[in-house]
Amino acid sequence: MRISHLVYPIVQPILRSLRRSPLLIRKIFDVRVPPDVAVQYDPTTVLLARTMQDLVAQTLSSRGNEPPLRLLEMGIGQGALVSLSIAAQTQPEAVRIDGVDCSPSRVNSSREVASFNGRDAHFWQSDLFTDVSPESQYDFIFFNPPYVPTQTGRDLQLTQRLEVDGDQMWDGGEDGASVLREFLDQSREYLSPGGCVVFGVQEIFLPDALVRKTMEPFEYQRIERQRPRWLPSTAYIGYRPTP
Ligand SMILES: C[S@@+](CC[C@H](N)C(=O)[O-])C[C@H]1O[C@@H](n2cnc3c(N)ncnc32)[C@H](O)[C@@H]1O
Fold it and tell me: For the Methyltransferase small domain, which residue ranges apply (predicted)?
């Protein structure tokens, strides 16, 4: 039996209400949730938001009068919390934020959250990069991907437990890394020189060795791993391969 089968059923009910709390969402992400919109986050959302905020702040502090940084969030989910937390920390003229999700209902709810917060972000539906313009070049592409192996997610009844409208929220395919693999492959075409991908996973579902094996064929450079003690998630950063 995998460790996730033992740990998840105990931890999930405790965390359930915390993950949907508008008060906590405001505190953690600086995003207000409209009363009629259901938004939830997970530990990886928190880590990805923190990692991206730091990276964007560092990059902006070392830039002069240059064009805005271009950001793309893959899989914005119900509230685009990572993107909107970055928007909350930056001037609109310093960053341009795009975001996509394969689910039309999640795109709509993220648009509502952005508009409720008066944030300028551009969200649309796309299955990975299918509907992202091939001319687009991003300084950062970030993703909290679905990373639970299909059978594990079915055993844990994740779609019901998370109360979401489909498996795409969590289903990472047979080994948990299928969507991540496709994302890493396709992202290379959309990164500007010096640009990077940033993603997060939970090791109980996707161990470090499998993440590294998944990244290897795509030759990302200067791979960094961030594993804070205070969260059960890990973030990875990989820079655009040299052509
Ligand atoms: C784990 S959730 C993360 C949601 C949100 N970004 C967060 O951090 O809380 C994964 C998101 O990726 C989206 N997704 C899954 N497969 C996708 C694909 N092929 N293309 C675009 N989005 C996808 C899902 O619909 C879901 O919103």
Answer: 58-162
Instruction: Give distance in angstroms: CA of 14 to centre of ligand 1.
Output: 23
- For 18-42, what is each residue's pLDDT tens digit? 888 999 999 999 999 999 999 999 9
pLDDT digits (tens, 9 = 90+) for 211-238: 999 999 999 999 999 999 989 999 999 9
101 Cα: distance to centroid of ligand 1 (angstroms): 6
Report CA dihedral (124, 19, 140, 114) to the nearest 10 degrees.
40
Separation of CA 147 and ligand 1 centre (Å): 10
Q: Which residue has the tokens 């008066």?
A: 118
Distance 48 CA to ligand 1 centre (A): 13
* Residue of minimum CA distance from atom 6 in ligand 1: 76
pLDDT tens for 195-217 read: 999 999 999 999 999 999 999 99
Domains and CATH numbers, the chain: 3-239 (3.40.50.150)
DSSP 109-164: HHHHHHHHTT---EEEE-STTTTS-TT--EEEEEE----B-HHHHHHTTHHHHHT-
